Amino acid sequence: MAEQKEKINTDEWVDLYADYLFNYCIVRINDHELAKDLVQDTFIAGIQGLDKFEGKSAVKTWLVSILKRKIIDFWRQKESRKTDNFSYFASKNGDNYHWDERRKPKGLLADIDVEIHNEELGHVLQDCISVLPSKWRQIFIDKMIDEKDSEEVCKVHDVSPSNFWVIMHRAKLQMRECLEKRWFND
Amino acid sequence: MIDCKEAAYLVDKGQFEKLTFWKKLNLKFHSLMCDICRKYAKDSHALSHIVKHADLNTSKLSEKEKVQIKEELAK
After folding, report:
1. CATH number at A5-80
2. Hey, are the CB atoms on B40 and A109 less than 8 Å from each other?
3. Helix A2-29 vs helix A114-130: angle between axes, to the nearest 10 degrees?
């Protein structure tokens, strides 16, 4: 009987929370199969830890907290990718940097209508976010999408405020170029 | 006088933080003369707006995948 009860519970969990958890995950990981596996692992960890769940929070919140840890573990394992800094976008003339002719911003992004292309933009942005180095990605998402306090983001990711602004800036440089390329060239 | 590297950095930082008077003035002055940094500022603001409003929640698991998970959990 106990087994039966658990089975019904877990089916219900999948129906109620799978999409939410999957969405949460895919934005941060951008790999359909992997996101699915992490969601499944989250449910399994949830079932195994069910006796530890005291009902202090909603089941959904609790599952999200498990998933968060799994995503962080995944990021930790993954090697961080090649990083761009300003010298990639500019050339030095004496002591001063000037935009590189091939990489200079064209001011096109303001022409994109986010109301109309909402969904396609979501996919392109996910791709662009996914190629950010992992630390930048986490910080960029926390600040730009989750709109957390800068101070809080610094604390969570253990970076100094000045380092935080440099990371945000570099992430934006890379995101800007990625979005321009993907949206206007592809 | 600040260069494009510094100007672009201040553009991004200035979106979230109040810049000091001198930094702000430097940025204004640079932007007056530098067409590309003005475009960067325009793009950077647009990017923030797009990231905030684009639908990043469009992906779903298929019914088949949900059944697979259910089966996996029932094991």
Report:
1. 1.10.1740
2. no
3. 90
Interface size between A and B, measured as CB pairs under 8 A: 147
CB nearest to B3's CB, from A23, A97, A114: A97
How many CB atoms are closer than 10 A to CB B17? 12
Q: Which residues of B touch A123 (CB under 8 A)?
A: 58
Q: Please give the Cα distance from A105 to A173 (Å, whole number).
A: 9
Total domains, chain B:
1
CATH pick for A108-184 out of 3.20.20.140, 1.10.230.10, 1.10.10.10, 3.30.420.10: 1.10.10.10
Per-residue pLDDT of chain A (186 residues; tens, 9 = 90+): 444 444 447 888 899 999 999 999 988 877 788 889 899 999 999 988 888 777 778 889 999 999 999 988 777 665 444 444 677 788 888 888 889 888 899 999 999 998 888 888 888 898 899 888 888 999 999 999 889 999 999 999 999 998 999 999 999 999 999 999 889 876
For A113-132, give one letter per residue: b (16+ CB within 10 A) or e.
Answer: ebeebeeebbbbbbebbbeb
Whole-model pTM? 0.67
Q: Amino acid letter at B68?
A: Q
Picking from A67, A29, A75, the residue whose alpha carbon sits closest to that of residue A46 is A67
ipTM > 0.85, yes or no: no
